[in-house]
């Protein structure tokens, strides 16, 4: 999920009231550590497969349907992914776990690429997804309660029978 994070920024002109807040759009917190620092982060598709667990076919498909922004290419035409691409793939993985339809994920990607003017639409899309997730959590809690009752019933059901089989030695 995309999160808005507020951070404190210190300015040299105003050290005494250095609590100027800025908003930064981050994909997930805390960001994962990557093997290469920004600026030297050029990963092949096979490296991204190893990092993410996605298949090369899935990565190409994400790019083809517009879920991934344009991925840079080497001089030989091979895809070269960056840490930013890995962050995006992490977010896409989280959205998949929510059950968000692929069409909605693609729409979200389009809105992100369109810029800040789409914040309201992104907000609505993520809020709707959040409501769906909360409803699924409630359903799963109800299902878990049923399972717990059944497990308890079967655990208790075998006890009297076991007691009858053990002779009383008193």
Unreliable runs: 1-22
| Class by SSE composition | mainly alpha
Radius of gyration: 25 Å
Q: Report the principal-axis shape.
A: elongated
What's the helix count? 5
Strand order of the largest sheet: 1-2
- Strand-residue proportion: 5-15%
Give the SSE string: EEHHEEHHH
Mean pLDDT: 82
Main sheet overview: 2 strands, antiparallel
**Total count of strands:** 4
How much helix is in the residues? 55-70%
Tell me the distance between the termini: 65 Å
Q: Please, could you describe this protein's structure?
A:
Residues 1-22 have low confidence and may be disordered. This protein has helices at 45-52, 56-65, 83-98, 102-114, 119-165, and strands spanning 3-9, 20-26, 72-73, 79-80. The longest helix has 47 residues, at 119-165. β3 and β4 form a beta hairpin. The protein has 170 residues and is mostly helical. Strands 1-2 form a two-stranded antiparallel ribbon. Strands 3-4 form a two-stranded antiparallel ribbon.
Using brief descriptors, characterize the structure shown.
single chain; 170 residues; mainly alpha; two-stranded antiparallel ribbon; two-stranded antiparallel sheet; 5 helices; 55% helix; 11% strand; disordered N terminus
